[in-house]
Amino acid sequence: MLPDSQPSKQAVPYRLQAVALAAFVIVAPHSALAQSGTDIASQDAADNPVTAEDAQGTRSIDFEADELAYDSEADVVTASGNVVLRSEDRSVRADKVTWNREGGTILATGNVRFVDERGNQLYTESVELTDTFETGAMEELLLALRAGGRLAARSGERGEDGTVILKDAAYSACVVQNADGCDKKPSWRITADRVTYDPEQNRIRFKGAMLELFGARILPLPGLAVRSDGSATSGFLVPDLRFSESNGIEISGSYYMRFAENKDLTLGAYLYSQANPMVSAEWRHLTDKGAYQVTGYATHSSRISDFTGVATSEADPRGYLFTNGRFQFSPEWSLTGSIRLASDRTFLRRYDISRDDRLRSTINLERIDRDSYFSVSGWATQTLRLDADQGQVPLALPIIDYRRRLADPVFGGTVELHANSLSIVRSEGQDTQRAFAGARWDMRRLTGMGQVVTLTGLVRGDVYHTDETGLTSTAIYRGNPGWETRGVALGAVDVEWPFVGEAFGGTQVFKPRIQLVASPSIKNLAIPNEDARAIDLEDSNLFALNRFPGYDRLEDGVRLTYGFDWELFRPGWRIKSTIGQSYRFDKDSTILPDGTGLSERVSDFVGRTEVRFRDFVKFTHRFRLDKDNLAIRRNEFDATVGNRRTYAEIGYLRLNRDISTVEDLQDREELRVAARIAFAEYWSVFGAGVFNLTDREEDPSFNSDGFEPIRTRLGVAYQDDCLEFGATWRRDFATAGDAERGDTFQLFFSLRNLGVR
Hints:
Elements: H1 14-26, E1 50-53, E2 60-64, E3 67-71, E4 76-87, E5 90-100, E6 105-115, E7 121-130, E8 135-144, E9 150-158, E10 164-172, E11 188-198, E12 203-207, E13 210-213, E14 216-220, E15 225-227, E16 235-236, E17 240-244, E18 248-260, E19 263-272, E20 278-286, E21 290-301, E22 316-328, E23 333-342, H2 347-350, E24 358-368, E25 372-383, E26 395-405, E27 414-425, E28 431-446, E29 452-467, E30 482-496, E31 499-503, E32 506-519, E33 557-570, E34 573-584, E35 605-613, E36 617-625, E37 632-642, E38 647-655, E39 668-679, E40 683-692, E41 708-719, E42 723-732, E43 742-751
Antiparallel strand pairs: 1-2, 2-4, 3-4, 4-5, 5-6, 6-7, 7-8, 8-9, 9-10, 10-11, 11-12, 11-13, 12-15, 13-14, 16-18, 17-18, 17-43, 18-19, 19-20, 20-21, 21-22, 22-23, 23-24, 24-25, 25-26, 26-27, 27-28, 28-29, 29-30, 30-32, 31-32, 32-33, 33-34, 34-35, 35-36, 36-37, 37-38, 38-39, 39-40, 40-41, ...
GO cellular component, one term: cell outer membrane
Subcellular location: Cell outer membrane
Keywords: Cell outer membrane, Membrane, Signal
């Protein structure tokens, strides 16, 4: 133990420093600190910090410092030079720490950084700590929250309830340094006379709050409160301002209510200069089994008849309901579902909620394990097309699907059993019920010369029941009324032979492929076609065993498909190309309409080319060429050039199939463009457009001359690390009921970590 006659302030060598502190702790029974319990007299204090524990063993403080001095008269310990104090998950770094044993306080000064158990960091020149390691009075402080926000204040103190009270404070979620480490002024901040930070509730409350944008005081924010952990808190959201041709000037606002960590409610109100007000609500709930949400809109307004285009004489209740969710009952069992319902066909478009032309509601109960899959599902669709008949839209319920893969190989291959049933009903159309069961066998082998050979066998038995077939306008979709049965058998051999080598300064892979598929004659036209209508030869189904998209139609006969894949890999570059064709050995198929590319013995050519250069260039081209004259029957490409902030996109599709007898396969031509140009570091201008290029020759139902804008959009935006705002203009060129063609203007505003948008 150090004698009382030792000078009151003297630096002690490392070893003696440890002894002095240990002795000091022992003789301080009135302090909250007691003996460390370890003999550290023979160890270097810089490598083995001293530990002090309170009498109850509930709190310990580890010290590290370059120098340590003890004033025996004042009973004060002073640590200086790179001082580090640690207590459980809290820590303090400072130039100097003074511990008053009598008062039980610790004063840290000089470049102080205090880190609490939540990861929040406090920077100040001076802070008082109790011997239980709680902060006290502070001057000129900065509190950096782990979630990203920052609080600066002239002074602060810790209340008896553990809250931190700051005076003359400012809050912002903006970074204070740019990427080069230079100081940066925040885009926005909240100034307040008084700020209360409650670390237990992770809540920051402001008194006398004012929003400053680029240094200008623009908006008072009474009663403002935010969460320090970055999560949401109850309060009003920043309003939206919009002008549209259908509704005039629109002002919308929302109030967010957080009931718990796992559930919240947002209530919205919409005011229009040319329409009645509208309200909305969104409920979200996370449970121990899954999550769901429910969103609804409601108003009372007049609308235009879907078919006559004449406004109704009386106002009607109008609205939209959307709910979806997923629940995982066990590792195997899950339930997913969604409901989408609108009061009428133009509500969503008029109020700019959605531009979908159909709403699908679904339910699906699934069980998935390593070797089996089971599903009971159903779906219903509400059409929003003005010229569509809702009575012809099917309701599918139930859809039952079961698959099982046998654990043991059969003749060296894998066997998968499959059973399926489907019931489709229409209020004013054909009804169909279907059930089938089958098995598929696959064996894949690699030969000594490098060929990949796959053998496949499939057998299946189908049962159908159909009535009201006369209500289906396309004859080849109807099938025979009443009961029908069908047997299906198929065998296939598929050979791929990849070659790898160097080329063009990189590595290339050339893979020829040939496939032979054989099937006896199948009763296709006797069976209704509900799920295999949109047939079209393309690169994705060229080597498919059945090139129809569903189960109701299958290609029969014998066909040979051939083609190749080619890939080139260079630093930063990837080029991939596919092309192929098929040949049918028997007569032309009667179930494939002319123009699909598959109706004759020799099919059209189909292919796909992809080009990638880092993340800067992405290009995809898909095509189908007529086998007789190489005319382009399908021409589709999508290209993107640029980065996340500055880019240009273009997409084009033309289907030139000359099919006029089947409504699902009519010709189309469309152009899509979009671009964004960034400037002045945080600003950008952007635009997009969708154009219908279909003319009367491609589709007689169109009145367009070959260039008809559908939608265009232009805008300007500012976006930095914590602020986003801007304005957009959109023009719709088509009127649908009471969703009128015309211009829409919108202002948007978003502040990071402030709970607004």
